[in-house]
Design goal:
α4 crosses α5 and α4 crosses α9. The strands form two sheets. The protein has a six-stranded mixed beta sheet with strand order 2-1-3-5-6-4, with helices on both faces. Strands 9-8-7-10-11-12 form a six-stranded parallel beta sheet, with helices on both faces. The protein is built from ten helices and twelve strands. The chain has two domains: 103 residues, Leucine Dehydrogenase, chain A, domain 1 (Rossmann fold), CATH 3.40.50; 145 residues, NAD(P)-binding Rossmann-like Domain (Rossmann fold). The protein is of the alpha/beta class and 291 residues long. The protein starts with 6 loop residues before the first strand and ends with a helix. β7, α5 and β8 form a beta-alpha-beta unit. The structure holds NADP nicotinamide-adenine-dinucleotide phosphate (NAP). The site of NADP nicotinamide-adenine-dinucleotide phosphate has 25 residues, from α4, α5 and α9. NADP nicotinamide-adenine-dinucleotide phosphate binds next to α4, α5 and α9.
Amino acid sequence: MIDGETRLVGLIGWPVAHSLSPALHNAAFAAEALNWRYLPLPVRPGEVAPAVRGLAALGFRGANVTVPHKRAVLEALDVLSPEAAALGAVNTIVVEHETEGRPVLQGHNTDVPGFIEALRAGGFEPQATRAVVVGAGGAARAAVYGLLQAGCHHVTIVNRSYERAYDLIVDLDVPDPAELETESCGLDNLVEAAYQADLLVNATPVGLWPQAEETIWPAQTPFPAHLTVLDMVYHPNQTRLLQQAQRAGARAIGGLDMLLRQGARSWELWTGRPAPLEVMRAACEPIEKRR
Ligand code: NAP
């Protein structure tokens, strides 16, 4: 029941109608008997700053932020976590309601821990490994930052447009000691880079429904069996890329686990409690199957 004590969080994005987040967060609130609700909050481009100020004015505890607002939201926030500051992107807002003075708006990025936790849960430890990240958008930034923080020795960024990969490297401002190199190259170099790596990450929408037959890996090229692959696409969770990997005997990790884990981290920032991850997983798997 919604009453005067109900605490509110939500999802700011455009569009938000097909998001799994309301289902997984509300299932977790119900399982933990918390009088909280998670609402879809469609916010048009250009309206993000007033929307965020409105969250604070309306007494919301916070929100998730998704496409296309992850960068634009920064100007409306008071403080950023180290991950959010390094990436220049926020996916979670926490509103601290001070007893005196105005609320403080904090920006966090839980894509980073969500990605690293999904890798480890899938059996891959990034310490002292080599990785190839395909893509140079927000998701790729989170992956590259997380891998370097977790002790990965070498990351090759492969992107359709070289300029955006270059910008990623400049923006992340990686310290660059001898054992930690970051390169970029065009998509043609993907196969060569992947054969020399331990991990391949797809941080592009290639393979996303309804183009579920597409894959970043060339059809006629044998897939390296030694690789671990994490595909950030989660609709479908079993992408063509993951099927290619599994057929070759490689380890394959789907994007849904990362989505769940970044959501669980947001939930913990708002509530201060451990998130019921399996409840959240159970809430979104039937929706995924129906879609
Ligand atoms: P984004 O900022 O729009 O970046 C997309 C990147 O993919 C760009 O580097 C773009 O290359 C590249 N790309 C797009 N279409 C391509 C194509 N047909 N061929 C080759 N490269 C292509 O998007 P994002 O926010 O980083 O998200 C990327 C994907 O990750 C999305 O599918 C998103 O749903 C998913 N994601 C999943 C999670 C999760 O929790 N599982 C979290 C975040 C994101 P250019 O630079 O050349 O345009």
